[in-house]
Amino acid sequence: MADEPAHSVAARLAARHGEGMMRFLAGLGLDVRDLAVGREIDRLAAISSVDGHALSRTTANSSKFGRGICLGGENLSRVDWAISPRRICPACLADDRAASDDKAAAWAAWHRNWWDVRCIQLCPAHGCLLTCRCPECNSLLDWQTRSIDRCPHGHLLSVPGTESSLDATVDRYLQGRLLTSGSGPETLFLDQFAIGKVARIVERLGAIELDGWSHSFSVSSDEQLTARRRRAGFRMAANIGSRLPAALDDVIAHAAPGRRGLIASYGWIYRSWLGVPGADQSGGQLLFILLAHAVEKGLICEEERGASSRKVALKMACAAFGKGHASTRKIVMIADLVPSGSRPGVSFQIDAGEIERIRRHVAGLLDFQTAAKFLGIGRNQFRSLVRLELVSCDAEAATLGFGQLISPYDLEGFLNSLASDAPLVPHTPSGMVALPDACRAAGVSLADACQAILSGRIKTGARCNGAGGIAAVKLMVEDLLALRVRPRPIGMVSTALRIHPQAASALIKAGAFGKPPDISGSSLSAFGRRYVKPAELAKIWGGNGRAIVRSLAAADVPPAFGPPHCRQLFYPRERAMRLLTREISSHTIQ
Predict the structure, then answer these.
(1) Is the pLDDT of residue 396 over 60?
(2) What does the radius of gyration of the chain's CA atoms come to, in whole angstroms?
(3) Is 131 helix (H, G, I), strand (E, B) or coil?
(4) What is the pTM of this model?
(5) pLDDT at 232
(6) Phi, psi (deg, nearest 5) at residue 91
(7) What is the distance between the alpha carbons of residues 384 and 436, in angstroms, rounded to a whole number?
(8) CA-CA distances (angstroms) from residue 344 to 316, 324, 325, 337?
(9) What H or E segment, with its residue span, contains residue 52?
(10) Buried-exposed string 25-42: b where 16+ CB fall within 10 A, e elsewhere
């Protein structure tokens, strides 16, 4: 399919075999999280007889710099892209099932790669809201199911006739950006920004036109209002140079009479958006238009305009960045601001507008200490969130050499994700406590608790309106106790690999997973990717385990672990699979 990623192919391959995706991939030594970010695609392509190059183009890949994601040539932050919880369009799944015969219905439904892009809210084809919950039992969708169009409890997700009247123009444009390379001259202004920024820009532009003057921007949970704002902002962006000043005329006309100044005249548009360093997602272009409008209306004088197209020398760029000559020259070289033919020791002129854009962008980012205070946690706790990729560092700042800095928008998105389905309440409900306090009471690390919440294993109970940071997220202490349970090494290995406890004990003694205190899920996954049991090979290629053992012995492939030290056999996975690849054709997706 033109927009089917690797984890969808794996899910359909598992459905073809009548198994859950996670269990099926474990037998092949694969992991859905690796496939979702473009790793192990060659192995999946060999198993499923799918074109690996085509599959790489339709699958997200970890960005070269920072912790972002690249999909369809678009750079996405971790806030704008996620595979958990899984999102679907019920009408698209219904179309897939209707287009298949009864025999292939179980594996006919497929996952679109743009369903993982969180700034796409509506299905461009059907106009209905993308959902992460089962319409029948309201359970969160995950990757444990036996089919893409089934929920964890087996309910059918493919619901025909769910088309909506919501305007999906913006979502259609965002989807087109992932599948092609732009949408025409009417979107030239938006084409220069990442699609995550486009979604935020058009919603705020639409709020200017629809809501008028207001002291603060109101974030709405009403899908109808959000769709109208995005549609109005999209129309405004098509002719931003004339339509934004016209909308600003109406804004200042309804400001409080007799009051002057940018904040009093424009309200939230300047106070909490365009006037805040780093908050202008357009790189200063919208701020430039606003300041030009303010000069025209006599609100400020020409000398007060902060944006300029003048050229500056490298010395002035050093002052703007607060760095030395060598560091600044390296930054402007990476940003491609050095004129061609420039030589060391010879002065050159740099675009002041671009220097100002970079300065504003970096100035609006937060270091780890400030970001930790923003969330109300310690620096070590925050580093754990970054290490688990729950919070991502700004890719541009890292590329330019400013180090690991965090966007406040990403932090807001992280907090919203922790309590996306929790009700907003004025006071803490009875029996619930703040998430950091619950972690301390349950003896669970904050990073593990956040990871469990974002993966859907734990549900938050409420979000308190009066608290700030992570402390606003409320839940029961009992919900975290399950995370504290850590099985004994032998039991953990035996359960994870589905082997006899005596075999697990022998593998531990042989050092197959490192020292027993260091045995973890990652070491078990690494063992599963490296070694395979005969029964697993027989399940993939047919026959029985004894026949597989005879075939491997005839081909002079010895087991890596086996009697007398270990009561079960384990073979090197890659070598065994290369030997048996000739029989893979009976296990491919038609």
Answers:
(1) yes
(2) 27
(3) strand
(4) 0.55
(5) 94
(6) -70, -40
(7) 14
(8) 17, 15, 11, 14
(9) helix 52-57
(10) bbbbbbbbebbbbbbbbe
